[in-house]
Design a protein that fits this description.
Structural class: alpha/beta
Order of helices and strands: HHEHHEHEHEHEHEEEHHHEEHEEEH
Largest sheet: 7 strands, mixed
Strand content: 5-15%
Number of helices: 13
Shape: globular
Strand order of the largest sheet: 2-8-7-6-5-3-4
Distance between the termini: 57 Å
Radius of gyration: 22 Å
Length: about 400
């Protein structure tokens, strides 16, 4: 008997689902661990949690949860407009920036078209492309990052979207803004360039760029940003895109009504005012990145220089090492699905959490180097400090 699933479009059936980081609750069930003893450094979340101003605003918004949110997001758009120097009709809101990426694909791609992205780029780019039946053109990476010249050469007559993440996830690589600006000048106007800046707040101030000012020159540019990372609102799912009014108008026709919920809108609006929290997040990330890089170097582990809030570490047998870390209550991110089977991606955490990861990795690596005779050392040792050691 033929079922509805049998008749689903082939391009949908062929999609490899996005693999999120393992939740703490799942690991606790799997290995019989106490949730309080688990450290999660897998999903590039802000270890400080949310901005206090954002938390308060979200709590206040709950009293109106029986009402639909403002589908146009007027208040948040007004604040973004003032902060970024763009008109409100140049802003589209999303259920996280992931939603904005999906909307872009649904708006500008068809089964007769293609999109271009780099090897080792964010997994959502090919998924969003394949969801609408378009073809992904994958360009080999250069030093784990984007090869802009090769990406420009890969553009075809049927190409409608090109994806760039800067900094890139999961590798953390960064392209100088002047190179991206020159690249934009060379791209045909029929190609929408999506510039994903999810990790832009973690760039050193000297390396940041007002890319929103480029929109007047490049009507085929869409900039996507999120409140999930430095702003600490990953659980609320709110992001936005900046583009030419005509681009945004088309995307708003595809965007689902009320795609950003009431507490998320309120929290994001308040978070934009909490500059102290953003500065603390940046400072913590800078210190944590240095701690992880130094610790991994001491363990003779190669890393890819990163401008995000995570570090890519070449550990060798990443699948086995990841399993052993999980047994010890440490969650990091295997990235074999990104074509990087020897690497683990580690998010920057609090100082104690970073130390917990480095200590666990040291024990696992030492046991693996001893071979079979060191198998007993792979048995997890109790952590008498529990979560307190991570605060």
């Amino acid at each position: 008997m033929i079922t509805c699933c049998d008749l689903a479009p082939p391009h949908v059936r062929a999609i490899a689902p996005y693999q999120p980081g393992k939740p703490i609750s799942e690991l606790a069930r799997e290995f019989g661990l106490a949730e309080a003893d688990i450290v999660k450094l897998a999903s590039n979340e802000n270890p400080l949690g949310p901005s206090p101003l954002a938390l308060s605003a979200a709590q206040d918004a709950l009293y109106d949860m029986a009402l639909y949110p403002d589908g146009a997001g007027f208040a948040l758009k007004a604040k973004l407009s003032e902060k970024l120097g763009v008109a409100q009709n140049q802003i589209v809101l999303g259920n996280g920036s992931n939603d904005v990426l999906d909307i872009a694909a649904q708006t500008f791609l068809t089964p007769e078209t293609s999109s271009v992205h780099s090897e080792h780029a964010f997994a959502v780019y090919p998924i969003a492309t394949q969801t609408v039946g378009a073809q992904s053109i994958v360009v080999p990476a250069q030093d784990y990052g984007h090869d802009l010249a090769a990406m420009r050469a890969a553009i075809r007559d049927d190409t409608r979207v090109l994806w760039i993440a800067n900094p890139n996830n999961p590798t953390g690589t960064f392209l100088p803004w002047a190179e991206i600006e020159a690249f934009l000048e060379s791209v045909p106007p029929y190609v929408l360039v999506v510039l994903d800046e999810a990790y832009g707040e973690y760039l050193p101030p000297a390396e940041r760029c007002d890319t929103a000012a480029w929109l007047a020159r490049f009507p085929n540019l869409l900039i996507t940003r999120t409140f999930s990372k430095a702003y600490g609102l990953a659980g609320l799912r709110v992001g936005y895109g900046l583009g030419h009014p005509d681009v945004i108008d088309l995307m708003n026709r595809v965007r689902h009504p009320f795609n950003v919920n009431l507490p998320a809108l309120a929290a994001a609006e308040a978070a934009l005012d909490d500059t102290d929290f953003l500065e603390r997040s940046y400072a913590l990330n800078t210190a944590g990145m240095a701690q992880l890089a130094a610790g991994l170097a001491e363990l003779k582990i190669e890393t890819v220089p990163s401008k995000g809030n995570f570090l890519l570490a070449k550990v060798g047998d990443a699948a086995r090492i990841n399993t052993e870390l999980l047994k010890r209550g440490v969650i990091v991110r295997p990235v074999a699905n990104y074509g990087l089977p020897e690497f683990l991606r580690v998010s920057v955490g609090l100082a104690g959490q970073n130390a917990r990861f480095l200590d666990a990795l040291s024990v696992v690596l030492a046991a693996l180097s001893e071979g079979v005779s060191g198998a007993a050392a792979l048995e997890p040792r109790p952590d008498p400090g529990g979560r307190k050691a991570c605060l």
